[in-house]
Automatic annotation (TrEMBL):
Pfam family, one: Pyridox_ox_2
Name of the protein described by the UniProt record: Nitroimidazol reductase NimA-like FMN-containing flavoprotein (Pyridoxamine 5'-phosphate oxidase superfamily)
Lineage: Bacteria, Bacillati, Actinomycetota, Actinomycetes, Micrococcales
Gene3D superfamilies linked: Electron Transport, Fmn-binding Protein, Chain A
Entries under InterPro entries matching the protein: Pyridox_Oxase-rel, Split_barrel_FMN-bd
Organism in which the protein naturally occurs: Rudaeicoccus suwonensis
Length: 231
């Protein structure tokens, strides 16, 4: 049910509003872009044959679009390719917040949910989209390898989810826990440690395929991945 405000205000949208802890939301587009540029995996969701359907997917932000790709043989993707409304969720777990009790313990995170109808890219737009996606995940890789063949392009569907005002919701948490209210109900039986355990995704040393020639140097695109995940 939608709840309408008086005096001509915009209607309440439960999918774009927080019902609790509203301070964790942000309408700053640069905050959203920073998350989309850092995280590489999101979850695409829609309704398929009356049932919820979700799949994790690699993605890249290209300006005002989120670029996704998949196999043309994936039947579930055909649903969103043909215009079914969808949601795309990204999440970064940045740390555990260890409080004085289990109830107050939490996590620091950044998340976003984008909604809309995906655009099926074709022709040169699809080629450009796939190249942007590749270079976002493997910086500069398209310049190190041969271009995709027509057969490979024909087997791949490239989709763009537009990032439009009012179509996304960002929320996050930073900082530590609150101190306890010292009364009989909350004071710990003994002093306990409280604080934050930071978390981040890191890249290890590249592992060469067994069939790959030993004299082939590690390319700049791989080193760029290492640098990205060592910041």
């Amino acid at each position: 049910m939608r709840r309408h405000c008086h005096h001509g205000a915009m209607s309440y949208d439960p999918l774009n509003s927080l019902t609790r802890k509203e301070g964790r939301a942000s309408a700053d587009r640069s905050t959203l872009d920073a998350l989309l540029d850092e995280v590489s995996v999101g979850v695409l969701s829609t309704v398929l044959d009356g049932m919820p359907w979700s799949v994790p997917m690699l993605f890249a932000r290209d300006g005002d679009n989120v670029i996704l790709h998949g196999s043309t043989g994936a039947g579930a993707l055909r649903q969103v390719t043909e215009g079914a409304p969808a949601a795309f969720t990204v999440y970064s777990l940045d740390g555990y917040v260890v409080a004085y009790n289990a109830f107050e313990s939490s996590a620091n995170y950044r998340s976003a949910v984008l909604r809309g109808t995906l655009v099926h890219l074709s022709g040169d737009s699809a080629v450009t989209g796939l190249e942007r996606l590749t270079d976002r995940l493997f910086p500069g890789r398209t310049g190190e390898v041969v271009p995709s063949t027509r057969k490979e392009l024909a087997a791949t569907v490239c989709l763009a989810l537009p990032i439009r005002e009012g179509s996304w919701l960002y929320r996050g948490r930073v900082g530590g826990s609150e101190p306890p209210e010292y009364d009989d109900a909350t004071v710990p039986a003994a002093p306990v440690w409280t604080g934050i355990v930071p978390l981040r995704l890191t890249a290890g040393e590249p592992q060469r395929d067994e069939w790959n020639h030993d004299d082939v140097p590690i390319p700049e695109s791989v080193r760029a991945i290492q640098r990205h995940y060592s910041r």
